User: Which sequence fits this backbone?
């Protein structure tokens, strides 16, 4: 971890001094990653490689990029060969290599409210730093997070590029679908103007076909992973699968990536060396993670995701599955997918999703992580806890900061997590 | 705003209601008048800090501000800086020469410490009747009995530093309760300032709590840090979190020197972010007693990538500024 942070800092310095482009730095980092990731399982290493390759490609000056929020429909961007770069993912990545203080410092200079979620503050810093160059557009939806509207709009203003905002209504009604479809149509028009690409119907159809293949692969992975005991991936890595599952939607890479994960579960024989055994014990405490995972390296995983006494076997966001797209109505089906996301609409929908996943994965307890400044987390957690306990699950909320380690206390977390695990024996 | 002759804007936002903070960013750039952002949580629980911000802002809008009372008839001018740790007094004559300087611990009573420091002045041969005006500043400024005027430490530190340096500068003051960065303009007045948030992160209090956790006094703590060859990063900003982090670092066998250095560097980073918020630029000047801490100053230099001037008795900067205001009348 030290070497990784050291290299990241050096590369960052040289990018900020203009000695290297971000694209160049990410390629160099990718080369070193073979060493940094040497303890991971082959399947995890493959995923990592593909992800870093995509990021360095998306930041190349030869490619048009878009800065988006996590649930922005990537399919419509890939249709125009625009590579989405999810800024929350970049915040997470920079946090994982120890660079969050730099970007948070920049955000502070910009008077971005310090009580705001660190992912969003960081993305403002990233935008200001100029490290990622200038995108062709900035896009976000109203899904999942109320910070999107403000920070992404500000980033677009700062970069002087068009801002596409897609407002997602709560209900999956015909009117609701039409409303989103109309916005998607406008977005397609704006993207066509920005890229000069006309006649995109066929390209969009191809993206949706790829997306359907990815949906099928994700369903296969879900079924395999429900009963998997091989220690191939660490819990936070699986939770972070949710990111490429969205920003690569429409591209063949995602299909390949998910198929590689499936192959790993079916036939890989090498574990992640963080775990001492190839298989998670039968008697471990099976846990589910709710909401966001800390992006930096933290010792909490040794306590709850060690494969010997307990294991976080699933999480809330990487397990979201979608119905196949209806190719006769591309924008209508994208609209329906967005509206149906479990994080949208009444809280019952989210609870229903969590309970289904928890039962499929045979989970006993759940840990919810409220990240600093996240209104979605702190606003919902008490109802969520009450309802999930009523559904028969043990529930623990911990407060921390998933992007800024300085704002979290491991010792506090340790006490809560250990007490939570101890309470298992006291039913 | 033009019709109403508005001189400044105060944006009052509720903590965690992020939208209004973005309004402030906009207004600050486009409104054409100074803007101040304050934050609350539907109840005021850090009134002292809030008042310092508001008063300093108003002082910036309206020069010669403060609460004026009848002045005495003597030939000396006194500045009294009632800080959370120490109460400092500077007495000057009509030519701005310092004729006396005293410092006593504030303890639990502002009234008592002010009485003591005035008694020391009297002991030095300057009686109350010889003093024409007294200006009070610092955390306890509103409780200083007999002050002719009350001015925030922001304006006083700026005035003191400007007088000592004779040029515009960015002043850094790590106080017991508050840390601040102040940008002084060409005319010696406050151009902008930034203060730490409500918690103790990056303040002198943080340093104290950490020194106590490691069972050493503040001086010894700074010496330990100076000795360290390496730094063990202390990542937590919150003093409660940092305390537990320090305990686990000690338990994990990290050396005290290196941890002490880590703590100093965490505070320096925090403070530098205040300076950045106001677009701070060299020359930098450090005011306040913490400026005597060599390790902190060197960490600040490293983070700012710039030299920092520290005068001989930096803890008197605020009181000197207050005395200068007293002279100005
Ligand atoms: S942690 Fe919460 S506020 Fe932050 S990006 Fe995620 S949903 Fe938004």
Assistant:
């Amino acid at each position: 971890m030290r070497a990784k942070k050291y290299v990241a800092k050096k590369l960052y310095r040289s990018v900020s001094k203009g000695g290297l482009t971000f694209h160049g730095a990410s390629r160099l980092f990718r080369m070193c990653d073979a060493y940094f990731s040497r303890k991971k399982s082959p399947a995890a290493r493959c995923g990592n490689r593909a992800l870093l390759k995509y990021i360095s490609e998306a930041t190349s000056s030869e490619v048009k990029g878009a800065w988006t929020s996590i649930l922005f429909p990537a399919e419509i961007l890939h249709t125009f060969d625009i590579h989405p770069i999810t800024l929350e993912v970049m915040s997470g990545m920079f946090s994982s290599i120890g660079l969050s203080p730099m970007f948070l410092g920049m955000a502070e200079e910009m008077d971005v409210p310090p009580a705001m979620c660190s992912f969003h503050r960081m993305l403002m810093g990233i935008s200001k730093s100029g490290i990622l160059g200038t995108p062709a557009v900035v896009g976000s939806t109203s899904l999942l997070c109320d910070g999107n509207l403000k920070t992404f709009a500000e980033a677009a203003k700062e970069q002087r590029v068009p801002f596409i905002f897609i407002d997602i209504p709560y209900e999956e009604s015909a009117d609701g679908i039409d409303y989103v479809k109309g916005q998607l149509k406008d977005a397609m028009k704006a993207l066509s103007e920005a890229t000069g690409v006309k006649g995109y119907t066929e390209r969009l159809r191809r993206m949706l076909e790829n997306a359907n293949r990815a949906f099928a692969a994700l369903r296969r992975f879900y079924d395999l992973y429900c009963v998997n005991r091989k220690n191939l991936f660490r819990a936070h890595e699986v939770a972070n699968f949710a990111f490429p599952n969205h920003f690569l939607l429409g591209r063949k890479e995602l299909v390949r990536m998910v198929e590689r994960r499936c192959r790993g579960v079916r036939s890989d024989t090498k574990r992640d060396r963080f775990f001492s055994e190839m298989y998670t014990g039968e008697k471990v405490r099976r846990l589910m993670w709710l909401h966001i995972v800390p992006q930096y390296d933290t010792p909490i995983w040794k306590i709850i995701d060690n494969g010997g006494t307990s294991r976080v076997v699933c999480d809330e966001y990487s397990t979201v599955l979608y119905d196949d797209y209806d190719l006769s109505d591309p924008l209508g089906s994208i609209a329906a997918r967005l509206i149906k996301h479990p994080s949208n609409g009444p809280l019952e929908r989210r609870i229903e999703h969590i309970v289904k996943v928890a039962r499929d994965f045979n989970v006993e307890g759940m840990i919810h992580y409220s990240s600093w400044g996240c209104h979605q987390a702190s606003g919902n957690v008490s109802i969520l806890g009450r309802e999930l306990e009523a559904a028969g699950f043990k529930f623990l909320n911990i407060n921390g900061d998933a992007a800024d380690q300085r704002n979290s206390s491991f010792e506090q977390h340790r006490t809560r997590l250990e007490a939570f695990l101890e309470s298992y024996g006291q039913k | 705003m033009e019709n109403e002759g508005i001189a400044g804007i105060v944006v009052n936002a509720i903590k965690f209601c992020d939208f209004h903070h973005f309004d402030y960013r906009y207004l600050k750039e486009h409104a054409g008048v100074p803007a101040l952002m304050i934050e609350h949580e539907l109840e005021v629980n850090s009134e002292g800090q809030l008042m310092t911000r508001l008063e300093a802002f108003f002082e910036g809008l309206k020069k010669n501000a403060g609460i004026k009372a009848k002045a005495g008839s003597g030939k000396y001018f006194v500045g009294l800086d009632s800080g959370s740790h120490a109460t400092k007094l500077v007495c000057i004559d009509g030519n701005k020469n310092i004729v006396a300087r005293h410092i006593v611990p504030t303890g639990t009573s502002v009234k008592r410490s002010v009485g003591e420091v005035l008694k020391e002045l009297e002991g030095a041969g300057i009686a109350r009747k010889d003093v024409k005006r007294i200006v009070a500043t610092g955390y306890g400024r509103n409780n200083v009995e007999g002050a002719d005027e009350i001015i925030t430490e922001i304006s006083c530190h700026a005035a003191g530093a400007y007088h000592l340096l004779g040029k515009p500068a960015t002043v850094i003051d790590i106080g017991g309760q508050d840390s601040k960065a102040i940008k002084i303009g060409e005319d010696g007045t406050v151009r902008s300032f930034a203060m730490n948030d409500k918690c103790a992160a990056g303040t002198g209090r943080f340093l104290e709590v950490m020194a106590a956790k490691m069972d050493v006094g503040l001086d010894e703590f700074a010496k330990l840090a100076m000795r360290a060859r390496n730094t063990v990063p202390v990542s937590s900003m919150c003093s409660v979190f940092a305390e537990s982090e320090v305990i686990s670092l000690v338990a994990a066998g990290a050396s005290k020197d290196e941890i002490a250095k880590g703590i100093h560097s965490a505070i320096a980073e925090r403070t530098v972010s205040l300076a950045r918020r106001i677009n701070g630029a060299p020359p930098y000047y450090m005011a306040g007693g913490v400026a005597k801490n060599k390790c902190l100053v060197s960490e600040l230099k490293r983070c700012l990538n710039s030299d920092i001037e520290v005068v001989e008795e930096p803890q008197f900067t605020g009181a000197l500024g207050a005395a200068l205001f007293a002279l100005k009348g």
Q: What stands out?
A: Chain A has a mean pLDDT of 93. Residues A 88, 117, 119-120, 144-145, 147, 292, 371, 374, 376-377 surround iron/sulfur cluster (CB under 6 Å).
